[in-house]
Amino acid sequence: MKERIARDLLSIGAVFFRPDEPFTWASGIKSPVYCDNRLTLTAPEVRDDVENGLAALIREYYPGAEVLMGTSTAGIAHAAITGHLLHLPMGYVRSGSKDHGRQNRIEGKLKPGEKVVVVEDLISTGGSVLEVVDALREAGAEVLGIVSIFTYGMKKGLERLAAAGVENHSLTDFDCIARVAAAEGYIRQEDVERLLHFRDNPADEGWIGGKA
To answer: Which residues contact 103 (CB under 8 A, 6 or more apart)?
Structure first.
C-alpha cells in the first residue's frame, strides 16, 4: 500500500522533490518537498487508489466509525468519496466559524457521542488537524482517530498527536516516498539522507546544498 500510493503521488506530481532548490513554507522553513494532494482528485486512477486506501484504513483501524469529518478544505472531497464507499455520513470542519447564518464551524449533522474519524490530506506538524479534533471534541464527538494520505513523520507532529491522545494512520509517509523517488529516478540516491535530515529537524538547514 505505502509504495503503491508513493508511486501514485510521484507520478502526478502531487509530491514533488526539489532538494537543490528548496521551497519556502509560509512559516519560513525551507523544504525540499512540495505536496499538493488535491491533484489526486483530477487523476481518476490515483484517486481510486487513494479513496479505496482510506476506506481500507478506516475498516481496519476504526471499524466502529459512525461519521467521517474532513478537514477544510483539502480533506473535504476525500471524506465525501470515502464516506460514499463506506456508506457513512460525512461532514467537515471549517478553519473558523462562519460570520453569517448559523455561524457553524462544523458542517453536517453531528450528534454528541458519535464516533468520528477525521480525514486529512497530509500531516506535518499536526497543528491544523488537531484544531479539527479539538472542535469535534468540544461538540461532544468521540474522535476515534485520523486517516490521511501522507505524513511527514516529523517529531513535532508525532509528539502533538500523542499529547492529544489521537492516532493517525496514513496511506504513505515521507520516508517511503523518498526511497521510492530515489529508486524511480526522481531524485538521486544520495539525496535520501538529506531528505531524512530535513524530516528529523526542519529548522536545521544543514541539508541544503548537498550537506547532511
So the answer is: 97
